[in-house]
Amino acid sequence: MPERAIIVRVMRYKPGIIDPPRFENHEIVIDEERTVLDCLETIRTNLDTSILFRHSCHHASCGTCAMIINGVERLACITKIGYIEGNVIALEPLRGFPPAGDLVRNMNGFFNYYPEPYNYIRHSEMLPPAAPLLEIKEFLRFENCIECGACVSACPVTDKKGDFMGPASLAAIGRELEKSPERSDELIALAGGERGERLCERALRCSKVCPMGVYPAMHIENLRKKRINA
Amino acid sequence: MERIVIIGGGGAGAALAHDLVMRGFSVTLIEKGNLFSGTTGRHHGLLHSGARYAVNDPSAARECIEENRILRKIVPGALEQNGGLFVAVDDKDMAYAPLFAEGCAACGIPIRKISPGDALSCEVNLVKSLRFAYIVPDAVMDAWRLPLHFAATARLNGAVISEFTETVGIDVHAGSVNGVRLFDRFRHKEYVLPGDIVVNAAGAWAGRVASLAGLVVPLRPAPGVMVSINARLTNMVINRLHGASEGDIVVPQRRLSILGTTLRLADDPDDTEVRAEDVKKIVEQCAEMIPAIKTQSVHAAWSAARPLIDDPKASNAQAISRTFDCFDHEGDGVNGLITLIGGKATTLRAMAEKTADLICRKTGRDVHCTTREIVLSDYRNTFRREAP
Predict the structure, then answer these.
(1) Residue B387 above 60 pLDDT?
(2) Which of A31, A142, A175 to mutate to test the interface with B (most CBs of B within 10 A)?
């Protein structure tokens, strides 16, 4: 694949040192098959070791590298340079979480409104029903949501008011409701509380930016209907 | 109780933090980036049955099957427990089969031979010319969330976890460690953290940490390339039935398939170059087991450095054992410093147990390991502000 010269603009922030936050530019040349996360690693290894960002799996399974790339929430690890228009990549941290440093946000509050317990394993619907095997009774898989925070960042309500539990929590409640219908009273009440789905303004940005096709807005709508019909 | 500083927030460091707080030590875990941003989070996610190593590396194979059984009990929420197949595709694979079966039996790994018809009716995307397969107790882990369960449990039990904190010095006084010098990368400030024992659990970066105390450790970073494609083509892990090689495993997870992997030896743990020819090779080799792989586009390609224990006697990179060891640097004139290297994501708990046992011997504490039985706390508790 061809290489491309790009300017990576990184929103820098270090409390008391680079404060208020400002963009810092780095020019690099990189293969178009590589990703925004590869750009950041290249900058950190070769140009500026002080740059801070989260990353772990490098293939859209962990959810740590969500950030705002040219104005849109995306996972840096699967955003290939070849798909970027122009030669400037502007990187900002997610909105809706307290700042920590550079592209890192403090994710501590992310799970505050998740149902408890919330089972991360679901039945696998991926492939046609397999012939039964002695050793494996049924095939299972992880939930689609990788808890990256992109939906929370894109939500205009989360941005304005800190008291909305946000689309990720509501999607998790929606998924748990599908798996555990016997918990419906508890889960509908959790979603229907004063921090819950009633604060959603149906901007649908959560579903648009979700890198995993979780469709939080659909879960929110289902939960709202269930509360009204209850 | 003694203050233990663990350098390196990978799987082994998180598991060690959990083990040590359960034994009553005061623990701080130091990580220069975010947790699991080195090798741990980047691996393909295989919970090894040990079958891959049964022929050539039986000690690693035994470690794997034992830990496989333990992790299924203590962290089921981070595992897709769908089993795995070793598939024989050609004559060479057929010739390897008796060795494989013998090795698995010797290591206590339960396997069962299944006919091509049964294998194909269970996994429809396997190559039609498949000769037969063995079913093995492989599973798939979430490479981020599985070790995060250890970090969450350690934190709830009192361990301090400091991310984005770089170790810039190891303070040694009269032949004994008395702390580390740390650099807070958020606040740009250096500070001293006192410690009675310092564990170098920096994985592929352990050579750099050891050099802070003027020591050399037998570490060899060995990067491997992995490729993910945007389709789940099997429910189970699919392995090629042959000796250790490259491009011989497909690990499905969520809606992806992860193909692995290459192996080369490097000097620099940050050397994570992904060469286009490596990606092409992995795709082609894995497509010999699952032809539909070739019809999919590459979703991501990345590299991670294994922290192998260097073995000058090994004839090639594949011949280096995947076992682990901890090195007590008391004999090198730095009492209180321990380096942990080698191992695999599957054996993180065992690495922690062995290291914590050594720490107990060194400190004269007679406290037994409990991590085989303790069901881990939800990984989300790593982040939660208040206990649920």
Answers:
(1) no
(2) A142
Of A61, A104, A133, the CB nearest to B142: A61
- Residues B338-382 pLDDT 10s: 999 999 999 999 999 999 999 999 999 999 999 999 999 999 999
Host H or E run for residue B308: strand B298-309
Residue type, B172: V
Sheet holding B165-173, edge to edge: B165-173, B176-184, B189-194
* pLDDT tens track for A84-102: 999 999 999 999 999 999 9
Q: Do the chains contact at A116 and B388, CB–CB below 8 Å?
A: yes
Q: Which of A66-80, A150-164, B42-56, B202-216 has the lowest mean pLDDT?
A: A150-164
- Residues A101, A148 share a domain: no
B388, pLDDT greater than 50: no
Nearest chain A Cα distance for residue B329, angstroms? 30
B 35-74 → A contacts, CB under 8 A? 35-37, 40-42, 45
Location of structure tokens 């406290």 = B367
**Dihedral sign, CA of B380, B65, B138, B289?**
positive
Residues B282-310 have a mean pLDDT of: 95
Owning domain of residue A25: 3-105
Q: Count of alpha carbons within 13 Å of B147, Cβ hemisphere only? A: 34
Q: pLDDT tens digits for B222-269?
A: 999 999 999 999 999 999 999 878 999 999 999 999 999 999 999 999
Give the residue on B whose Cα is nearest the Cα of A117. B378
Same domain, A12 and A64: yes
Q: Domain of A66: which CATH number?
A: 3.10.20.30
CA–CA gap between residue A107 and residue A195 (Å, rounded): 18
Distance from CA of A12 to the nearest CA of B (A): 11
Sheet holding B249-253, edge to edge: B112-114, B132-136, B84-88, B237-240, B249-253, B256-260, B219-229, B298-309
B53 pLDDT tier (thresholds 50, 70, 90)? very high
pLDDT at A155 over 90: yes
Backbone angles phi and psi of B93, in degrees to 5: -65, -40
| A113 and A168 together in one domain | yes
User: Cβ(B17)–Cβ(B150) under 8 Å?
Assistant: yes
CB spacing of B302 vs A59 below 8 angstroms: yes
Alpha-carbon distance B151 to B18, whole Å?
Answer: 7
As for how many domains chain A has, the answer is 2
**Per-residue pLDDT tens over the stretch B136-171:** 999 999 999 999 999 999 999 999 999 999 999 999
Domain boundary among A105, A127, A155: A105
| CA-derived radius of gyration, chain A | 20
CA nearest neighbour of B303 among B237, B353, B228: B228
pLDDT tens for each residue of A163-202: 899 999 999 999 999 999 999 999 999 999 999 999 999 9
CA distance B326 to B117: 46
- Treating both helix axes as pointing N-terminal to C-terminal, what angle do A216-229 and A184-191 enclose, rounded to 10 degrees? 110
pTM value? 0.97
